[in-house]
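Continuing from yesterday's entry. The apo prediction looked reasonable, so today I'm repeating it with adenosine-5'-triphosphate included to see how the binding region is handled. Same sequence as before; SMILES copied from the compound registry.
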Amino acid sequence: MNDFPQALTIAGSDSGGGAGMQADIKTMQERHVFATNVVVAITAQNTLGVQDSFPLPLELITKQFESLAADFHIKACKTGMLADAAHVAAVAENLRRFDFGPLTLDPVMIAKGGAALLTEDAITTLRNELLPLATVLTPNLPEAEVLIGQSVKTPAEFKLAAQILQKMGAQNIIIKGGHQTAEQQANDYILYADGSDEWLSTPRIETVRTHGTGDTISACITAELAKGTPLKQAIRISKAYIQAAIANPIAVGHGHGPTNHWAYREVEHD
Ligand SMILES: Nc1ncnc2c1ncn2[C@@H]1O[C@H](COP(=O)(O)OP(=O)(O)OP(=O)(O)O)[C@@H](O)[C@H]1O
Ligand SMILES: Cc1ncc(CO)c(N)n1
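Holo prediction written out below.
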């Protein structure tokens, strides 16, 4: 009797509640999945920016993994903010030790306000140790550019970037187009492990309330995978979920406000 869908987020805490592991937990809860968490770092953060952050001791990261492995049947997991190279390495080591199902790796680097959530020297560790463990890799455009070391702007460059990332060892790649603010559509490109690909495009919404969009879509994918939803369907549901969360804003905070995590259940969708 330990089989209710359970998922894990390995991420940083956002005191503002709209991004990081709070966005993950809210999203998993909305998708009827029990959310567990490994806290990697704590941020003092609101919709105006990140005021401070503190990575937790490495021993405590490993102990959290051990506590979860001793009790839960986690069927899918994701990573978010991982802080620095030592924490990336510790997370990778624990993910090799324990089977927590498919990993959705959201290579979080910089918060919307510009604060670094991952040190620069950690990028090599992430590329070498974590990326090959990823079932799904979900970079935004700047993250894709950093990971491959070249520019990603045109549709052809999205495709090329995804192919390079797949060669680096991630199985399925989603390059998120949220940062292409001049486009009428929010275009995400997906390259699947079997070589097939697709674009998922939704109308771009003019809003400042986009704090945590990337965390939310990757948490939704993770929740769906924990329930056994096939990957393509999991990604389509997640794109619709984030669209509803952005399109139905809630008035919270004075800056880049959070998305509405309960909108999807209240709006019409397929
Ligand atoms: N204004 C918008 N309108 C519609 N969809 C959007 C908008 N902004 C982002 N999206 C969608 O939200 C998802 C997340 O994309 P984005 O590129 O913003 O991720 P991110 O930069 O990792 O987010 P964050 O760092 O805030 O967590 C993608 O599916 C993207 O297409
Ligand atoms: C803790 C945390 N993780 C991720 C992001 C990116 O949205 C953020 N702003 N804060």
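Comparison notes:
- The mean pLDDT is 96.
- The beta strands are 6-14, 34-46, 49-55, 74-79, 103-105, 136-137, 172-175, 185-191, 197-203.
Will overlay with the apo model tomorrow.
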